[in-house]
Amino acid sequence: MEEAAAELLINSRGLFLPHSGDDMVVSGSYFFAASLGVPVIARRNPFLGWLSSLPSAKGIFFYQSRRDIEGFYKMGTDATSSEEILAFANAEFGKRKIELCWRMVFNSIDIKC
């Protein structure tokens, strides 16, 4: 199932997330798309708003209306390559970043790792 979803996303122009609630339901979808280098088109919510505010954020596009969505599909995401999206996702959420964060936590409570 995951492979089929990945193939669909890789061959698409982006992942459309219509959910507009404040909960984190969109985070897993975002991470799945970003791990494939696929842009995300979404309503602004606290998580994605925070994510897009990071200086190196790539591949997140917000819409307010149907016209915004139409504009996105006319323009496309050519300004952001899959490689840029992957680089951002890996730098902010990849294995090295996770290891660094856990190391900081362990060091702050004096656990040797």
From TrEMBL:
Taxonomy, superkingdom: Bacteria
Protein name (record): Uncharacterized protein
